[in-house]
Model the fold of this input.
Amino acid sequence: MKGMSSSSIRVVNQTRGRTLAEQCELARTFWARGLGLMGRASLAPSQGLIIYPEWSIHTFFMRFPIDVLFLGPDDRVLGIRVAMPPYRPFAGFWGARYVIELPPEILVKTETQVGDQLELTPPLHH
Done:
């Protein structure tokens, strides 16, 4: 996809010792951040999308629910949305530096909570 990073990023919840995603794409350009997951039918259980920099999202024109993490510059979870349904106008967390979109129920399965510390490999360059 245009503006998407071809390399994948692994996301691990260090606080819980659980992997959230083995392969996250990185959306850094204006176009890629705006497009996000629109047009896709689903995400595989080990996939995700990192939208950087960004503090808010919408799910207009999406076909499936997603779990959403809002993260600070220190990779700490500031906010969570579990199974956010399609066609929601807005979700955000003021002060977040970036957003990770994951398949639904990953956050419940991994017991991810606000305040958890994540590790991204390779790390984002803040």
Observations:
- Residues 30-35 form the longest helix (6 residues).
- Strands lie at 9-13, 18-27, 47-51, 56-57, 66-71, 77-84, 91-92, 98-102, 118-121.
- The helical segments are 30-35, 106-109.
- The chain has two helices and nine strands.
